[in-house]
Amino acid sequence: MASNIHYTIADADGDVSVINIPVEFLSTLDGDAFSFAVEYGWDIINPLLNGTLVSAGITIDIDVAGFTNAAAATIADVQEKAEFVFHAVGGFLKRISLPTFIETFFTGAGAGKEVDVTQASVTAFNTLITAGFHEALVSTEPLLPVTDHGEDIDAFVVGHQAWGRNRR
Fold first, then answer.
1. What is the pTM of this model?
2. Which of 26, 65, 119, 137 has most Cβ atoms within 10 angstroms of its Cβ?
3. What is the pLDDT of residues 121-152, one digit of tens each?
């Protein structure tokens, strides 16, 4: 499957635009190889631009055909969301919004506005975000979620109902 190398470019007014370049990786690569690919691409693009590089990265698309993924429930609505707020070691907050959140996972069997942290699925999600993804088949070290500032997430703060922009 194709992946994308992306570069965010700013102009003199601070307006930004993103360049996406689809790429196909034909072998297993580590983080250093990905960094090299992104940097090498920038070395080729940079002489063509007047703007400045704000950020760069890579997204990896994978085939989800084998994932457990039932059809959407008839009541599913991407505007109905739960927002989870986590604390990071440096004091920053990380917010993660989950669209089509199952209503009964809110307090009061769906009548409340707060996420019900006693639900096993909610507890599992919070643990995954604060303790990391650990899969011995891939690595002995957990993959740790971080904030946009690269700080480790250390605690769940609150989860609450959040409507999308069309349903306030």
1. 0.71
2. 119
3. 999 999 989 988 766 555 666 778 888 888 88
